[in-house]
Automatic annotation (TrEMBL):
InterPro entries: GHMP_kinase_C_dom, GHMP_kinase_C_sf
Organism name: marine sediment metagenome
Protein name as catalogued: GHMP kinase C-terminal domain-containing protein
UniProt xrefs under Gene3D superfamilies: GHMP kinase, C-terminal domain
Keywords: Transferase
Lineage, top ranks: unclassified sequences, metagenomes, ecological metagenomes
Domain GHMP kinase C-terminal: 92-177
Length: 182
């Protein structure tokens, strides 16, 4: 099927769940990219929940269009990769292990913004659509600890603590979407 060529995260999440970090693409002895190795996995605290919303807009890239886009993208600047790695190692992972949702969410949102910069030429901005961008901003305004876009979008997600906050955010997002895009 060709799954996992770009990211080992999907395979790792399917197999074990939790928060997954892969080691990036590597080549085998024949110069072919292999499935990136999972280098870190940790379960999310049970009360950390994600509210997921998919605006009714054109889906993001997939299949051949996604492969073409990846091949056309320039390598990200080393300083951006360094910044993402620093945020991951110095803020995000410790926050997850110590169950500190606020700094974890901040780190998640910042990494999403940096990755959005990398893909902005292909997807036309930080997000796949203006609807996705507005939903991410709205989730943060409504108290999500962090928010971002799933892959090429348009699906977005917001991190909350507990069922009550999840229900509240889901209802707010539903009202926002119905009011904005009827």
């Amino acid at each position: 099927m060709g799954r996992g060529r770009r990211s080992g995260i999907g395979i790792g999440a399917f197999q074990h769940g939790g928060f997954i970090v892969d080691g990036g693409s590597i080549e085998d002895s024949h110069g072919e990219e292999t499935v990136p190795p999972v280098i870190f996995r940790h379960p999310f605290p049970a009360d950390w929940l994600f509210v997921v919303a998919t605006p009714q807009v054109e889906a993001g890239l997939s299949d051949e269009a996604e492969l073409t886009a990846f091949h056309e993208l320039p390598s990200p600047p080393p300083e951006v990769v360094d910044r993402i790695c620093r945020i991951l190692v110095m803020k995000m992972l410790p926050s997850l292990i110590e169950r500190k949702i606020k700094p974890f969410g901040e780190a998640m949102t910042r990494i999403e913004q940096l990755v959005g910069d990398i893909f902005s030429d292909v997807q036309g901005g930080h997000y796949a659509s203006i609807a996705s961008e507005r939903l991410v901003a709205y989730m943060l305004e409504q108290g999500a600890y962090g928010a971002g876009q799933s892959s090429w979008g348009p699906t977005v997600y917001g991190l909350v603590r507990g069922e009550e906050q999840a229900q509240s955010l889901a209802e707010a997002v539903r009202s926002f979407v119905e009011g904005k895009w009827k």
